[in-house]
Design goal:
The protein is of the alpha/beta class and about 260 residues long. The protein has helices spanning about 20-30, 40-55, 80-85, 110-125, 140-145, 165-170, 230-245, 245-260; strands at about 5-10, 30-35, 60-65, 90-100, 130-135, 155, 175-180, 205. It has a single domain (about 5-260), classed as TIM Barrel. The protein is built from eight helices and eight strands, in the order βαβαβαβαβαβαββαα.
Length: about 260
């Protein structure tokens, strides 16, 4: 049984000097391929460097490159050229993490939208899929995506935590859905339990979002309280349970979907 973790923040400072060990533990747990998330231009460059350093043969580690809505205020005249250069690297398989965050509003909303549209245009031009972030902004995200969707090879709503209406709107637009350990959280994630069965095979992928979102159902819990890709099988277990599928079947179709989406 093999899994692909489509969202790992391996550049996070909590992993400093431990990245090789983190990857090794993931491989031992059956997480055979990981996509490292780029959340700014600097972080995207770091993610690419980690891919090249830790996996020179290119079998296990890949990356996204983009500007998160929190950092959209840093998007300037030089950002597009720098991002384009990253997106032409063979280990970079998607544009993002990009999108809209109207919950924290760390960047003004008009600047978030400007950065998102620039990145969607690049994705359409370069024929790359998009790794999307959305929080409290699904209606506006859908409105912006509508103008680009026919020109995109694909798009995944990463770390979906929304409600039924948002899920069905994304699926109606033929988007992919990423599910994290949020579904394992008995305090705030139980609304996902009846929803995950509505995601068709070929549209569902799994992710840790490590070091965030440690599955609360995990036993034993790590003393660090930090999530890592090796714990993705716990997300798999919970998703399979609420889809009424065997663990093996859910693993097989989510892995096949991720391989096709990221071309790995």
């Amino acid at each position: 049984m093999q899994l692909i973790d489509i969202g790992v923040n391996l550049t996070n400072s909590s992993f400093r000097d431990q990245q090789a060990t983190i990857v090794e533990r993931a491989l031992e747990a059956g997480v055979t391929q990981m996509v490292l998330t780029g959340t700014s231009l600097d972080v995207s460059e770091q993610a690419l460097e980690l891919c090249q350093q830790l996996d020179p043969c290119g079998a296990h580690l890949f990356a996204t490159a983009g500007v998160h809505p929190h950092d959209a205020k840093a998007w300037d005249a030089g950002s597009e050229g720098r991002l384009r250069q990253l997106l032409n690297e063979p280990r970079v398989r998607a544009v993002g993490e990009c999108g809209l965050d109207f919950n924290r509003d760390f960047s003004p909303r008009p600047l978030q939208e400007k950065a998102l549209e620039a990145q969607l245009a690049l994705a359409a031009e370069l024929r790359l899929p998009v790794f999307l972030h959305e929080r409290d902004a699904n209606e506006r995200l859908l409105a912006i995506l509508k103008a680009y969707r026919d020109h995109l090879t694909g798009a995944v709503v990463h770390c979906f935590t929304g409600e039924r209406d948002a899920l069905f709107a994304y699926l109606d637009m033929d988007l992919h859905i990423g599910i994290t350990g949020w579904i394992c959280d008995e305090r705030r994630g139980t609304h996902l339990h009846p929803l995950v069965g509505n995601i068709a095979e070929g549209r569902l992928m799994l992710e840790s979002d490590a070091p965030y979102l440690l599955p609360r159902s995990l036993r034993p819990k790590p003393k660090s309280g930090r999530n890592e890709p090796a714990f993705l099988p716990e997300v798999l277990r919970e998703v399979a349970l609420h889809r009424g599928e065997s663990i093996e079947h859910t693993a097989a179709h989510t892995t096949a979907t991720a391989r096709a989406f990221f071309q790995i």
